[in-house]
Design goal:
There is one protein chain. By secondary structure, the protein is an alpha/beta fold. It folds into 2 domains: 171 residues, Isopropylmalate Dehydrogenase; 162 residues, Isopropylmalate Dehydrogenase. 44% of the residues lie in helices and 19% in strands. The strands form 2 sheets. A 10-stranded mixed beta sheet has the order 2-1-3-12-11-4-5-10-8-9, with helices on both faces. It has a two-stranded antiparallel ribbon with strand order 6-7. A hairpin with a 4-residue loop joins strand 6 and strand 7. Helix 9 packs parallel to helix 10. The structure holds 3-isopropylmalic acid and manganese (II) ion (MN). The site of 3-isopropylmalic acid has 3 residues, from helix 5. The site of manganese (II) ion has 2 residues, from helix 10.
C-alpha cells in the first residue's frame, strides 16, 4: 500500500516522540512492503513563532494531501497564563479538527498487566478494564458562539441533529464490533443539548437492537469510571465532557504517556497521543513515546492493516516485559530508558521479527 503521512510534531516533547512514531512506522512499512512518504509541517507555538499562525494554510494543505496525519502535541507555557493572548497554540489543534472535519475522537482506555501498580486505583479494580470513549470533536462549547467582555462571558453548547446522529452512529458501530454495550453520557437532567442527544440516541437504539444502551449523567459517569471501570465498553459523549472524562480515563492505565487516539470524519484522519506537550520535559529525552507509537498502530488499523497494528502492539508489550521503560513507568530500582532508547528498541524488535 502507498501511504502519504503528514507529520506534525508541534511543541514541547512533540518533536522527540514524533521521531519515535515515524521510526516505528517506517520500520513496519519496510517489514510489510508498504511505500510510505513522510511530509513534515509546522503547527502550534512553533508555527506562531515562525509565521504567526498555529495552523498555517500550508500545513492544512500538507494534511489535506495526506492519507493520514501523525500528530504529536501543541502547547507552550508562554501562552498559558496570558488570558489576553490573541493567538494560542491550541487554536491550531482546534482549527485542524474543524478544517479536516474530524468529528469523532476515538480514545481507547486499556490497562497493561505489568503496569497495574502505576494506576492510582487499586490493581484489582482496574485489571481488565478495556473501554473506548468516543468524544464528539467539532461541536459544543469548543466551537459554539462565544462572547467575552470585562463583566460577562459565555460559550454556547450548541448541537444540531445531524451532528449528534453522525457521532452516535460511530458509537453504535463500535459497540457492534465490541461487547455491544453503549453508554451515552450526558447531563440531560439540566442541559437542553443533552436532552436532544438522549432523544436521538433513543431513536437510533431501535436500529441496533443487539446493543444494550444505557444513559448516564456525566457526574455519575465520572464516579463510575473509577469505581467500576470494567463496567464500560463503549462510551459516547459531547466534546467538553469527553475532554474531561478521557483525562480521567488515562489514570486507569497508569500514565498519560500510554494512551493513543484517532480522530476521524470527512477529511484526513489524525492519529495522536492524548497527552499534551509537557514543556518541562522538552529536550530531556524522558518523555514516554508509547502513546505516540500506539497511535501509529491505530493508524494502520484504520486502514485495515491489522497485522501491522498487531506487530506494534506486540513490540510495545515486549518492551514493557523487558523493562525497557521511560521513567514514568519504570519499576522501582529499574534502569530508566530515554525516549530515543525505547523507540529504538521497538524499531529493532519490529525489524527482527
Ligand atoms: C485534548 C486537549 C485539547 C482539547 C486542547 C489542547 C485544546 O486537551 O485533545 O484533549 O481540549 O481538546
Ligand atoms: Mn484534553
Amino acid at each position: 500500500m502507498n501511504l502519504k503521512i503528514a507529520v506534525l510534531a508541534g511543541d514541547g516533547i512533540g518533536p522527540e516522540i514524533s521521531k519515535q512514531g515515524v521510526g516505528v512506522m517506517a520500520a513496519v512499512c519496510r517489514k510489510f512492503g508498504h511505500d510510505v512518504t513522510f511530509n513534515e509541517a509546522i503547527c502550534g507555538a512553533d508555527a506562531i513563532d515562525k509565521v504567526g499562525n498555529p495552523f498555517p494554510e500550508e500545513t492544512f494543505k500538507v494534511c489535506s494531501d495526506a492519507d493520514a496525519v501523525l500528530f504529536s502535541a501543541v502547547g507552550d507555557p508562554r501562552f498559558d497564563n496570558d488570558p489576553t493572548a490573541k493567538v494560542r497554540p491550541e487554536q491550531g489543534l482546534l482549527a485542524m479538527r474543524k478544517k479536516l472535519g474530524l468529528f469523532a475522537n476515538i480514545r481507547p482506555v486499556q490497562t497493561f498487566k505489568c503496569l497495574l501498580h502505576k494506576s492510582p486505583l487499586r490493581p484489582e479494580l482496574v485489571d481488565g478494564a478495556d473501554f473506548i470513549c468516543i468524544r464528539e470533536l467539532t461541536g459544543g462549547m469548543y466551537f459554539g458562539e462565544k462572547y467575552q467582555d470585562n463583566e460577562k462571558a459565555y460559550d454556547t453548547n450548541m448541537y444540531t441533529r445531524p451532528e449528534v446522529e453522525r457521532i452516535l452512529k460511530v458509537a453504535f458501530e463500535y459497540a457492534m464490533k465490541r461487547r455491544r454495550h453503549l453508554t451515552v453520557v450526558d447531563k440531560a437532567n439540566v442541559l437542553a443539548s443533552s436532552r436532544l442527544w438522549r432523544k436521538i440516541a433513543q431513536e437510533m437504539a431501535l436500529d441496533y437492537p443487539q446493543v444494550a444502551v444505557d444513559y448516564m449523567y456525566v457526574d455519575n459517569a465520572a464516579m463510575r469510571m473509577i469505581q467500576e471501570p470494567r463496567f464500560f465498553d463503549v462510551m459516547v459523549t459531547e466534546n467538553t465532557f469527553g475532554d474531561i472524562l478521557t483525562d480521567e480515563g488515562s489514570c486507569i492505565s497508569g500514565s498519560m504517556g500510554l494512551l493513543p487516539s484517532a480522530s476521524t470524519g470527512s477529511g484526513t484522519p489524525v492519529f495522536e497521543p492524548i497527552h499534551g506537550s509537557w514543556p518541562q520535559a522538552k529536550g530531556l529525552n524522558i518523555a514516554n513515546p508509547l502513546a505516540q507509537i500506539l497511535s501509529v498502530a491505530m493508524l494502520f488499523e484504520h486502514f485495515d492493516l491489522i497485522a501491522e497494528g498487531k506487530l506494534i502492539r506486540e513490540a510495545v508489550n515486549a518492551s514493557l516485559d523487558a523493562n525497557i521503560r521511560t521513567p514514568d513507568i519504570q519499576i522501582e530500582g529499574g534502569e530508566k530508558y530515554g525516549t530515543n532508547e525505547v523507540g529504538q528498541w521497538i524499531v529493532d524488535y519490529i525489524s527482527k521479527r
